Amino acid sequence: MNAIFKRPDNLTDAATHFCPGCTHGIAHRLIAEAMDELGIADRTIGIPGVGCCVFLYRYFPIDALEAPHGRAPACATGMKRAQPDRIIFAYQGDGDMAAIGTSEIIHAANRGENITVFFINNSVYGMTGGQMAPTTLLGQQTTTSPFGRDFKSEGYPIKMAEMLATLEGVAYSTRVSLHSPKHVNQAKKAIRKAFEMQINEMGFSVVEMLSTCNTNWRVSPLEALTMIEREMIPYFPLGVFKERTGKDFL
Amino acid sequence: MTEKKLTKGNIALAEGAIQAGCRFYFGYPITPQNDIPEYLARNLPKNGGTFIPAESEIASINMVMGASASGKRAMTSSSGPGISLMQEGISYLAGSEMPAVIVNIMRCGPGLGGIAPTQGDYNQAVHGGGHGDYRNIVLAPGSVQEMFDLTIRAFELADKYRNPTMIIADAMIGQFQEPCRLTPEKPVEFPEKPWALTGRKGRSPRLLKSLYLGDYEQEEHNLFLKKKYDEIQENEVMVEMQNLDDAELIIVAFGTPARVAKTAISLARAEGLKVGLIRPITLFPFPVKQVFEHSARVKNILVVEMNTGQMVRDVRIAAHKDAAIHFYGRPGGGFPFPDDVLGEIKKALAGGAR
Amino acid sequence: MYYDVIMAGFGGQGIQTISQIVALAAIRKGLNVTYLPSYGVEKRGGRTNVTLVIADEEIGSMVTNHPKCVIAMDAIAVDKYQSQVAPRGLLITNASLVPESMLERKDIEPLPLRCNDEALALGSAQLSNMIALGAFLQRSGILGIGDVESVMDDVTPERLKKTIPANLAAIRRGIEIAANGRGR
């Protein structure tokens, strides 16, 4: 009997702590599948940021380092420099990367650190209870933007994938979404390509994934998925913003 | 034996790091410690090492964490304001039980302060700095030779106890020069690191973390750490003691003030005043037993520091309950000269042992 | 033996060079040495000063506010350090830049030397520091010309090696002037 669908080898059978409907779990599965396919898990070390992603080590049976909030790209830098033949990835949420950790992500990217960063953009701080993040959409109500985000006071949602793509050190910067099977397939390809960039020593790779937080958005899981399509994608367009095809470093 | 070379304190420290097997340095410029990164930027690559001029001290300490988690010897150095920025990372290192060497060539504070020598960061290094229930191992070199030797020791202790080790020196110790032997006194120790994150191949996955959410998990972890700190207190005290046998007054001082105290003690003894010295070389673990034993007999102590008396509390806790404790401090760049200290010796002796 | 000296002037006068020579010669002689240069902001202001302690015993303090000798290569240095010289101590000044009227203390031994003029007479104003060094060797008595000669090669960078004979000549000239008691 041939199995046509099974849990990836590099995803543990631990029940996740994610809320029902959250797409973090999909992102985890895709990363595990990519590690399976590329055969890299034995030499891969994961670095979760702080937030809902922090328990990464429960779900991936690989070595892991828990980084301080926002600092995963700096930890990954030290680790990759110490072990250039290992595959190092950071997994950050939007509070982690786009707020407290902007300095670390920009400079790791700008140095062209040969690491991979997975970035979950769900437009709120999830773990702490749905506060406004730099990625929160205009008009979006959160516990700390109860009247809706107003650009006059809180500025505009920050577009990380586009911003990072402007840096010379970046080999690959893309934004994908996790809200439909078609988009999940695209996300899988992006994750795989990001790892391949690192394997081929092309430089810094980042995959931004539009993700749901139905709990903090105060909507049903299904409605959350449609909100990605309806509200997030118009502001956060999907696509590849930078892709290095050869070692065309300056 | 190799000839001693006239060497600047900061350079001795940087060379000590290389000879200790440190191959990863991450740092951000700040006076008065720039000689350290400048030396390592030039000399680490020659030794197969990596130097990254980091975007901030926050990034520096986290890069150290990444290299350290990989099982490699890594270091950063800074001064006051930069060390403040590193406290988050240092707390994580302690909580996750990762070794690291952090050097603070102290400048004045609070705030931006000045670049003159000071010991104002004693409490930050010895009693806290970051959040949570942890201790740093803290070494306080008093000579250029110790800048070299104690840097090697710092790496050994950090690895042995899987704990951040800080070297704190006032800018004077960093900037002055003395003849120095730039080779290790004995073979450098390299403890095994069966915890290092190197990829799971051939073994089960490893994890370095400091998050404990389960019932009593954190408490259990902190009690485990406490046991480790007790062990460090028991085994790793380093202290220099001089002229204590007939002493009627003990000076307790570290770093530059201890050097000045030695000259002041010579001046005092030339006048017939019997003064001795206890110089803590490890500030944590503090030489509690030594201070207690000698103060039980002498009962008259003068603490000299380049701050407003941060070590006095530790001396008070360690000292015999009947000991009188005097303090002389020059905070914020003022300097205790030998004759100033001699004056304080006379005052303390005139005051008598209470 | 315990000897402390502060050498001070402005950048380019060769203060660091002569203090390095003294320090290294003392180390070679088996003496203990501490060498404390100015650093940071003070350095950027163009001032330079070095505190040297030389002893055959363990050296405690690397700082001093009553040095046995001050070598002041310009008026600002005299202004700053004259008051610190230990009683009966020695104040060597560069009389080419320091008016004699500045030498106010009666309880110390002043030794004004026209360092720049003497150096020019030997062919280069750059030798003025060596004139002062010679006088210091003669008066302090802690090191001889032989001690200094043996370290000149080590302290002189490659591109300046050819200046060693001229430097030694200037040191000898400084010794000669000090021995003759000139400038008292």
Can you put this structure into words, describing what you see?
The complex is a heterotrimer of chains A (250), B (354) and C (184). Chain A has 250 residues and is of the alpha/beta class. Chain A has helices at residues 24-38, 56-59, 72-82, 94-100, 102-110, 151-154, 160-165, 181-199, 214-217, 221-235, and strands spanning 44-48, 63-65, 87-93, 116-121, 124-125, 131-132, 170-177, 204-210, 239-243. Chain A has a 7-stranded mixed sheet with strand order 2-1-3-4-8-7-9, with helices on both faces. In chain A, strands 5-6 form a two-stranded antiparallel sheet. In chain A, helix 1 (24-38) packs across helix 8, helix 3 (72-82) runs parallel beside helix 5 and helix 4 packs across helix 5. By secondary structure, chain B is of the alpha/beta class. Helix content of chain B is 41%, strand content 19%. Chain B contains 12 helices and 15 strands. In chain B, strands 3-2-4-5-7-6-13 form a 7-stranded mixed sheet, with helices on both faces. Chain B has a 5-stranded mixed sheet with strand order 10-12-11-14-15, with helices on both faces. In chain B, strand 4 (74-78), helix 4 and strand 5 (100-106) form a beta-alpha-beta unit. In chain B, helix 1 (9-19) packs parallel to helix 6 (144-161) and helix 9 crosses helix 12 (338-351). Chain C is an alpha/beta fold and 184 residues long. Chain C is 38% helix and 21% strand. Chain C is built from 8 helices and 6 strands; from the N terminus they run E-H-E-H-E-E-H-E-E-H-H-H-H-H. Chain C has helices spanning 15-28, 41-44, 75-81, 115-121, 128-140, 145-149, 152-155, 164-179; strands spanning 2-10, 32-37, 47-55, 69-72, 90-94, 109-113. Chain C has a 6-stranded mixed sheet with strand order 2-3-1-4-5-6, with helices on both faces. Chain C is globular. Classes of the chains: A alpha/beta (250), B alpha/beta (354), C alpha/beta (184). Chains in contact: A-B, B-C. The A-B interface holds A 41-45, 47, 54, 57, 60-68, 71, 74-83, 86, 103-104, 106-107, 111 and B 24, 26, 50, 52, 54-56, 58-60, 62-72, 74, 88-89, 92, 96, 197-202, 204-211. Strand 2 of chain A pairs parallel with strand 9 (207-208) of chain B, so a sheet runs across the interface.
